[in-house]
Amino acid sequence: MSTAAPDAVDTFTGARPRLVGLAYRILGSLADAEDVVSEVWFRWAATDQDRLDRPGAWLTTVTTRVAVDHLRARRRRSADYPGPWLPEPIVGAPGPEEVAVLADSLTLGFLILLDELGPVERAVFVLAEVFAVPYDEIADVVGKSPAACRQIASRARRRVRAAHLPRASGPDRRLVDELLAAVAVGDVQGVLDRVSPDVVCTSDGGPHRRAARRPVVTGPRVARFLINLASRYEGRMTATPVSVNGDAGYVVEVDGEIDQILSCAVDDGRVTAIRIMRNPDKLRLVGSPSQLR
């Protein structure tokens, strides 16, 4: 294994939060993003940095290409994934300071929408819209012309705007806490008063845990689903308020073990989306410090 010079280590360390953030947005998985950046580190350490005119551009290029390769490999396996797929959550302490750090491009709603894009389309959009990389440089990264990259980014931008994604909902903590309290006591009307009529509840259990195999849609159905779910664990469940990718949410423990991460997207004073992550593979890094931009 090559040993990088101190200056090369410092350069990589300074760029690392940005690289992790780039890979996470492309992949929607923090664990996979960390793996990508680790691979980039080994390539960086084996490279003669003195021959690089722009080390930052090199790191961005390699990180993007490795992340796109990982995304393509994951999508080839996605046919075997049971039920809905949700991004791996980034969990922090609740409060406006977390929302200030987490940009709108890190919300679960944004990442779910990005997952509808093709790997190259997703990479182009993230580089152009989130990291403001010039199209000439993006063209070199993905092997397309600058004009083609502009068209790709434009199409993706229209899709994102058409989705009318709400911003990170830090100020709506009280509403979400009231929703959970209504669920806990079985107050159906209390739930309906706090969710939009067309609210969607999506659960990701992966191959290891039970979860709804299809999204639950409309207020009455979501209310019944959540209340029935809570009743199964009565007396065994605790919920700790947290920020989940900038949205209000909870770490839910059953019998002292993390069972799920729940997050709520809020728009116009109502909860519009509830996302429940139960896949243990995506809960491994909960509570671990993560630095990304």
Description:
This protein is of the alpha+beta class. It has eleven helices and seven strands. The chain is elongated and about 65 Å long. The longest helix is centred in the N-terminal third of the chain and has 23 residues, at 55-77. It has helices spanning 6-27, 30-45, 55-77, 96-101, 108-114, 119-130, 135-142, 146-163, 173-184, 188-192, 219-232; strands at residues 91-92, 195-204, 216-217, 237-244, 247-254, 257-267, 270-277.
List the helices and strands and how they pair.
Elements: H1 6-27, H2 30-45, H3 55-77, E1 91-92, H4 96-101, H5 108-114, H6 119-130, H7 135-142, H8 146-163, H9 173-184, H10 188-192, E2 195-204, E3 216-217, H11 219-232, E4 237-244, E5 247-254, E6 257-267, E7 270-277
Parallel strand pairs: 2-7
Antiparallel strand pairs: 1-4, 2-3, 4-5, 5-6, 6-7
Topology as a string of helices (H) and strands (E): HHHEHHHHHHHEEHEEEE
Helix content: 40-55%
Indicate the overall shape.
Answer: elongated
Task: Flag low-confidence runs.
Answer: 97-101
Summed over residues and divided by their number, the pLDDT gives a mean of: 89
Strand order of the largest sheet: 1-4-5-6-7-2-3
How far apart, in Å, are the first and last alpha carbons?
Answer: 28 Å
Radius of gyration, in angstroms, nearest whole number: 20 Å
- Proportion of residues in extended strands: 15-25%
Count of runs of 4 or more consecutive helical residues: 11
> Main beta sheet: strand number and arrangement?
7 strands, mixed
- Tell me how many strands there are: 7
Q: Give me the secondary-structure category.
A: alpha+beta
